[in-house]
Amino acid sequence: MRENIKATVKNILTAYLELNKHRKTPERFTILDAVYSMSGHFSLEELGEKLTNDYNFPVSRATLYNTLRLLIELRLVVRHRFQSTTKYEACYDNNSHCHQICTVCGKVTEVKSHQVSEAINSMPMRRFHKDGYTLYVYGICSSCQMKLRRHSTKGKETKELQKQNKNNNESR
Fold it and tell me: What does the angle CA 70 – CA 48 – CA 24 come to, to the nearest 5 degrees?
């Protein structure tokens, strides 16, 4: 199935480039192939590393930016601006989904929710055709919650010990 998607997105890019009389460069098609070979979210640096290591096809940062901008315009890639980082994602076959974002560690997890999809699909919109959605839900992941609880408990224990030491010193 993934190969069918790669062929489809390649045809979309080819048609766009021909229609607008742009050059069909190997860089554009190799970047597109690399994007659709990656799973999940990726950074510009990760894409550059994949091109260099897996494809033996290093490209400049400017070429990556320009090609990704084109792929975003064609709705073949989506750009996410998470807390302190920008990530990209192939979106031709995955237009609508939710993200959980931990505000402590920055971990991003995709979530599939029929309830959210149904709510958005049934939401009336005037003079607007919905193509898809991306929802960001911010909070604290379970790992960070445990670390915060441990830290909080240690802090309380330390304060208790300090208070006891102070009381002991005052009674002497």
Answer: 40
